[in-house]
Amino acid sequence: MASNENEKATGKRKHNDASEAEGSSLKRSKGGNQGKWMTPSHKAKLQAVKGRSLEVGDTGFWITCQRQKEMRAADEILSICEEYGQKLFNINPDGTNEAAEDEEPEDIETAIEKEVAAMKSENKPKDAPFEVLKMNVDCVLFMRTRPPVDPLLLVREICKDATAAKDRSLRRSRFINKLTPIELTGKATEKGLEDVAKKVLSGHFQLVNDETEEKDAGENKACSYAIRPTLRAHTTLKRIEVIDKVASMISKSHKVDLGNPDKVIIIEIFQTFLGMSVVDREWEAMKRYNIHELYAAASKSAADAEEPKEPENEENEENEEDSKPKGDPESEALPTP
């Protein structure tokens, strides 16, 4: 009798344990999207983003976003890039160039064949102008760009419009924080740093031992600069070593100005990769291309403009009353004879 009760009890416990295990496995299966249901297209996009990786020679820009909102941020930045790609570089949302398509008129049959080919994922172009790369670090994405896209121009225009977005309806993102343009990517080693710096800096500065160093370089000869390195998940190169190495490659005709430089050298080091770009002084004025802060500043500016101001006439009248000489309060209290 006791054994039967134990068996029943044991069986019940086993059943409960199995149910709990099954329930916990179901909960775990929802991970990665906070348990929310995803459309097939969203799932395909998620898998595509996870399957790509950063490579030496890449250009584009880094994206920081809210924690656990990487895929939402990826959706936002893809939408933004498609819009600005069409506006700035004549790129259609499917990655083709409008100008190139207009040059060669095609018949209906050819157009249908191209449309069918575009619908097949295996026939999608591998050299798409925009590709989002999901890093294995929270809150970080990389947008790989290809010609004719200029990442410096693209990011600057996105942030410029964010500066003017005083109305919430004009905001294009909720989960994106900061954009950092990258002109070239290389290996995060001493040699990689030197190779990338030579290619990137030569377009903006006179370099040491450059054959043209003694020649007149126009405005570039006198421009000042500052170096702003950022290191993530990397321990090989040290911050001060990176700064000293880059500064040693630039001609002495350029002066260091940490307060108000003409140009800023951005260096982003992530794990085994190193990226670099040179931006103008507006980078500081635009909150270092932090879209979230630009939206907040635009909202504050709009709110300050809507606040009612006190009329100056009332203030002047109050000041005049205060300036008038007042009699003795005790004599004013005495009754008149």
Automatic annotation (TrEMBL):
<protein>
    <recommendedName>
        <fullName>THUMP domain-containing protein</fullName>
    </recommendedName>
</protein>
<dbReference type="GO" id="GO:0003723">
    <property type="term" value="F:RNA binding"/>
</dbReference>
<dbReference type="Pfam" id="PF02926">
    <property type="entry name" value="THUMP"/>
</dbReference>
<keyword id="KW-0694">RNA-binding</keyword>
<feature type="domain" description="THUMP">
    <location>
        <begin position="164"/>
        <end position="280"/>
    </location>
</feature>
<feature type="compositionally biased region" description="Basic and acidic residues">
    <location>
        <begin position="1"/>
        <end position="10"/>
    </location>
</feature>
<dbReference type="InterPro" id="IPR040183">
    <property type="entry name" value="THUMPD1-like"/>
</dbReference>
<feature type="region of interest" description="Disordered">
    <location>
        <begin position="298"/>
        <end position="337"/>
    </location>
</feature>
<feature type="compositionally biased region" description="Acidic residues">
    <location>
        <begin position="312"/>
        <end position="321"/>
    </location>
</feature>
<dbReference type="InterPro" id="IPR004114">
    <property type="entry name" value="THUMP_dom"/>
</dbReference>
<feature type="region of interest" description="Disordered">
    <location>
        <begin position="1"/>
        <end position="44"/>
    </location>
</feature>
<dbReference type="GO" id="GO:0006400">
    <property type="term" value="P:tRNA modification"/>
</dbReference>
